[in-house]
Amino acid sequence: MGTKTQPQLAKENERRIRANDKEFNAQFKYHNNYIKTSKYSLFTFLPFNLLEQFQRLANFYFLCLLVLQLIPAISSLTPVTTAIPLIGVLTLTAVKDAYDDIQRHISDSQVNNRKSKTLRNGKLVEAKWSEVQVGDVIRLDNNQFVAADTLLLSTSEPNGLCFIETAELDGETNLKAKQCLTETIELGDRHDLLWNFNGEIICERPNNLLNKFDGTLIWRGQRFALDNEKILLRGCVLRNTQWCYGVVVFAGVDTKLMQNSGKTQFKSTGVDRLLNFIIIGIVLFLVSICALFAIGCAIWEGLIGQHFQLYLPWEHIIPKDYIPTGATVIGLLVFFSYAIVLNTVVPISLYVSVEVIRFVQSFLINWDEEMYYPTTNTYAKARTTTLNEELGQIQYIFSDKTGTLTQNIMTFNKCSINGRSYGDVIDLRTGELVEITEQQTIFQNSNTNNRPSPSSGAIVAPPAAPPPIILVHKAEVHAKKTSMVVTSSGEAQVLPDRPRSDLERSAPPMDASEKRPGLKHVRYSAPSRSQDEDAGRLSPRLGGCGGLSPPVGNEERRISGGFKRSGAGCMQRQLSRTSSCDKALQSVDFSANPHHESDFRWYDRTLLDAVRSDEEHSHVFFRLLALCHTVMAETVDGKLEYQAQSPDEAALVSAARNFGFVFRTRTPNSITIEVMGQTEEYELLNILDFNNVRKRMSVILRRGDSMVLYCKGADNVIYDRLHGGQEDLKARTQDHLNKFAGEGLRTLALAERRLTEQYYNDWRSRQQEAALSMDSREQKLNAIYEEIESEMQLVGVTAIEDKLQDGVPKSIANLQNAGIKIWVLTGDKQETAINIGYSCQLLTDELADVFIVDGNSVEEVEKQLRQFKESIKIYNRFRPGGFDPFDRLNSDSNMDPLSVTMTQTSAFMQETNLPPTPPPPPAISVVTFSAECNDLFGDEKGSEDGGTASIVVDENTGFALVVNGHSLVHCLSPELENKFLDIASQCKAVICCRVTPLQKALVVELIKRAKNAVTLAIGDGANDVSMIKAAHIGVGISGQEGLQAVLSSDYSIAQFRYLERLLLVHGRWSYYRMCKFLRYFFYKNFAFTLCHCWYSLFCGFSAQTVFDPMFISVYNLFYTSLPVLALGVFEQDVSDKNSLEFPRLYTPGLKSELFNIREFIYSVLHGAFTSLVLFLIPYGVYKDGVSANGFIVSDHMTLGAVVATILIVDNTAQISLYTSYWTVVNHVTIWGSLVWYFVLDYFYNYVIGGPYVGSLTQAMKDLTFWVTMLITVMTLVAPVLAYKFYLLDVHPSLSDKIRQKSLKKIHSRASSDVRRTASSRRGRRSVRSGYAFAHQEGFGRLITSGKIMHKLPQDFAFPLGLGTKKTQVLHNNLNSADGPNSKSNNVTGQHMVNNNTNMRQNQNQNHSSMADITADGRDIGGDDGRGSGGSDDMSPRAPCQDLDTINL
Fold it and tell me: What backbone phi and psi angles, to 5 degrees, belong to 452?
C-alpha cells in the first residue's frame, strides 16, 4: 500500500528526484524533455478540426440547412447551393489551420532536435534535447542554451560560480551570477564522480515563478538547502564560463519556461463577436418571416388554394379529407421551404470571404517593406490570420520595458565635471545643437595614402592595410545651449552656457526625429559585420556631400576620396544652411589609446583635450569611475573584457577606459588601473556596497600616504552629504542635472573625500564594533556609513543613456495621439522604470503630477489612492474651462484640415483662428493647473453624445501613475480594484514596476474585464508570455535571442517602432476594409433575398423563387464575390503616409463607429429599400405587358431575369460608389463581374439548357428593358449620392478633409511639419532627479571575499608588500579584545557581510579585519594561523575570508 501511494503523495505535495537513477525517477512518471506546441497530429487533424469548426454557430447553421435541402418535400433549391459553399469554407479553414499547425510542428522539431551532452553509464554522450530525462546529469559549454531546468553541481570557476544570460526569459542581456553548493564543487568535470553522484532532490512542484525555487538536496547523509541561485532555467545561455554540470530537475512542459507559456487561448475579434450577435438576430428575423409566411400560406391554401387543386395539386403526404389540417401541414412545410429560400440573408460565402480577406491582409503585413529590420533580416509576421481588424480597435497597450522599449544597452552620453558640461556639439554658424541619433551611413575610404602623422601632422605613407571604414552621420541641429561648438573652419570652440529664454521655455518640445527647418540630426551606431562588407557598395551615396565634422586633433584621419572632394567650402555651405541635410559628423578618435573600444562613440573633443592636458578635475572624475565599481576584468584572446553586474557600471568603466583610465585587474584587497599608460595600484580598504535604501556606493582606497573615499549615487543623496562652500558649483551642476534629466538620461552624482589616517582608524574600529553588534546592527552600520560619507567634495555628474530602440518616443507619442492608452509593465525597479518613462516620453515634465503607489499594506495603498483621487478632484474643480477641439472640428466644416490636425494633435495653434492655449499656471497643492486638460478625464456624457472626450488625452498635461509590484498586489484585490481602476483610467500613462509575469497577466485581465476594452500586449521574453496570451492581441519582439514571446504571439515585429505602423496603418486599414466589406455585403444580400418576400405576396406564399435557381446558387459565388473581396483587400480612404501623419484617423475604431448595430440596421434598411424598388418597378412595367411584336412579356421567367439583371447592375453601381481607392484589381473585378454575368447566363441557358433560356435575351431586345433598368438604377443610386455629398459638405470626416486636401495638392512643407505632436526628449529641463542605477546589493561582498575571483584564496597577496607582522598582531588583538561576543554577535544575521567583510586597514597603528569572522559565528582566525599574533614567520599575505563559510 505504501509503495503505491508514495508516488501519488510525492506528485501531490513535492517532487523527488534521484540523480543518475532512472528506475527511481520512472515511478513518478515525470515528463521528458519533449515539447509540443502543435494542436493536431496526422490522424487527429480531420476529426478534431471538423469538431472545432462546427462549434461555430454559422457552420452548424448551414449544416442544418443542408440536411433540410436533402428533403424533397420542403426544398425548392438543390442541396448543391449550400453544400459547395459549406465544403469550401470548411476546406479553406482546414488548410489554414493545417498550415499554422505545420509551422508549430517545424518549430517544435527544431527545439527538440537540439543537441545536449548527457552523462550515460559514466560516459558523456551527445543526445537530443527531447531525450533528456529528469535526473540526468548534463554538461553545458560556454554560449550554449540550457536544455532543461537543472541544479548546478560544478563549474569551471574555482568557487562554483557561473554566469548566465536570461534574454529569452526576461529580455535582459546583462549577466547574472549563479553558484553551486560548496559541497558539490569537488565533483568538477570528473565523469566518474559525477556518475556516482546519487543525491536526492526534494523540491516544489512545477510552477511559473521564474525567480523562486525551494528545495532540499540529501547527499551523504546531509541535507542542503536549495534556492533559485543554484538553478539554471531552460532558455538561459551560459556565458563567460567554460563549462558546468547540472542535474535535470524539471524537463519539457514542467520547465518554468514552458509553464510561463500557458495554454493557447482561442481569440476572436470584436467584429467576430458582433457578427455572431447579428447572425443570431438574423436567424430570429428569418424564423419570424418564415412563420409569418407559413401562416399566410396556410390561410391562402385554406381559403383559395383548395379550389385550385386541379392545377396546383397537393402533395400526396398532405391530408385531403379535412381542409384545415391539410392547409396547416402545407404551412408547416412552407416554413422550412422559406427557411431554405431565404437562407442567403446569411450566406456561407460571408465566412468564406471574411477568411480570404483576413488571409490576404496577413500577407500584406508580412510583405510590408516598411516593417523590415535589416539588422537582423527580420520582417513583420502575422502569426494568426483571424485578428487583423482587431489591430484597428486597440484601446490599451501593455508593454514590457527591457528589450521592448529599450535595447538594454547603456552608453556614456554626457557628463558634468567641476560645473562644466561636456558632450554637446554646436554648429557655430547657426548656434544650434547638433543632436546625435542612431542612423548611420558607412563608406570605405578609397585613399589611405595621405594621412597625418600623430606626432607631426606630416603626410606619411601608411603600411599596406585594408581601407578603413569611416562612419558618416546624418546631422540635425537644435537651437539649444551647449558647451562646445564646431566652426566652419573645423575649429572647436567652447561657448559659455546661456540662460534659457522665456520663449524657449514656453515653446513646445520639438520632435527630435522630425525633419524640420532649422533642425539637424546626427545619427550613429556601431558598424555591423554586414555593414562593413557593404561599405564599398554604399560609398557612392556620399560623394560630393558636404559635412559637419568636429575636429579630432592631430589624431584625426583626413577623409579622402569622395568625401574629401567636398572641401571646406562645401562644408561652409552646409553649415550655412538651415534646412535639414546630410552632414558628416565624425566621432572623437581614441585610437591613440591601445585599450580603446572601437564601438565607443564620443563627439565632444574638449573633454579628451582636458584629459590629455592633465586637467586635475577631469582626472579625478575618470579616476573615480575607474575605481569605484564592482566590475570584474579578464583577458580573453589578448583583449581586456569586463564583466559587470549592471549595464550602468559597464558603461561608466568603459568610458573611463576609453579616456585613458583603464581598469586592469582587481584582487579582494587591491585595484589596478592604468592612467595614460602608467600603472597605478590602490589598496582596497572598504567597499560600502550599494542598496536600494542607500542609493549610493563608496570605496575607500589607499595609495602611498594618501587615503580617499570615492562615492557615486543619486544626486539628491550625494548633495545632502557635501561639505559647505560649494554653492556655485552645486548650482551649476544642478543645472546640468536638470538638463540631463530633461533629456531622459540616467544620472549619477560623483563625490570624493580625502581621509586622514587617524580619522579612518577611529572610524574603522567603530565600524567593526557596529558590524559585530547584536542589536540594530543594520541601523548602526548605516549610521557609521553616513558618518564617513559626509563632508564630501562634488566631483561631477555622469549621464548615461539607456538606449531606447529607434523611434520609440515618436511611436509612443503617435499612439497616444491616436487615443490609445499605454501601460508599461516591467520587472525593473521604480527609478529605472520612471527614467525610461521620461526617456520615451511616456512621462513628461508637463504632467500635472506623477502619482507613486508604494504602500506595503492594504491600508497604506488605500490611503494613497484616496489622496490621488482628491488631487484629481481638485484639479478638475479649479482648472479653467477649455474648448473641445473635436467639437470644433465637427462643427466648423470650413476649417482647414491641416489646422484641424494641429488642434487635435495638441500642437500650438498659431496658424489657426483658434485662441492660443495659455501655459500651465503654477502648482497648487499636489497638482498643477492647466487650461489644456479639458479632455483628460473622460466625460461620460460626452461619450454618450458621440463626443470624443473620453478618448482625447492631451500630450502635455494630465497625470501618470507608477505602481510598485508589492502595492499592485493590493491594488488588484477586490476591495481596491475599483479605486485603482478609477484613478488609472484618468491617467495619461501607467507604469507598473517590480511586477511578476503573473501580475502582468492579471493587470491585462482586469482591464479586459472591468473596462471592456480591446487590449494589446507586447514583449520579448518568457516573462511576457502570460501577458501576451491574456491580451486580445499579443505582439512579440523578434530578432532577439529570446524568441519565447514570439512563439506565443499573434504578431511579431523586430522593433517597437513598427507597432505604430502595424496599428495605425495595417490595423486601421484592416478594420476599415472589414467594416466596409460587411456593410456592403449585408446590403447586397438583403437586396437580393428580400425580393422573394415581395414576390411571395403574389404567389400565395408558396415559397416560389423569383429568380432562376442557378442564379441563386452562383449569385454570391460568381457574380458579386470578387468585387467585394477586392474592396475588403485593397480599399483605403487615405494613404499609409497620411495614416501616420494624422493619428486621429484611428479614433473611429476605438469606438467601433464603422460597423455596429446602427450601421448594420442601416445596411438592412438600405437593402430592403433596394429590393422593394428592384421588384416593384419591373413588376409594374411588365405586369400585363405586351411587346411591340405582340408577344406577352408578363411571364414569371421574364420578370425574374429582368430583376436579376438590374440587381447585378445596381450592385456594380453601388460598389463603384463604395470604392474610394481604385486599383487594377478593382476595375477588373467590378466591371469583369458585370460582363461575367451576361457570359455565364448565356452559357447556362443556351449551352447547358437552363429553364430560363431566352428570357433575358428577349427582354433585352425591347427598349422597355433598358428604360426600366435606367429608371430603377437611378432611383437606387440618387439617394446614395445625395447622402454622400451631404456628409462631405456638412459633416465631413477627417479622412474626407485629408482626401480633399490631397486632391487639391496644396500641401505645404510648413504645415506638414506640425501634424504630429512633438515628442522630443532633447533640450528640455527638468526639476526631477534623473537618478537610475540598475545595480544590486551583494557584489561588493563577492569581491572582498574573493569568491568571484578566478584565483583561489591562497593566491591573493597585497600588491604593495602589505600584511606585515605588526599589522597582523594588531588585527588579532582587536578580535580578541571583543572576547566571546565575537562569536555570538554574528549568529543572528549576516548583514555585516554585505558591505563590510574584508574591509582592511593596513596602517601600522591599527589593522582590523572581519576576515576571520565566519557566517556561522565560528572564529577561525586562530585555527589556520592567519589570525594568530606574534609569529615572526608570518606570511606577508593578506588575511582572507574562508570562502566556504559565506552563504551568498
Answer: -70, 145
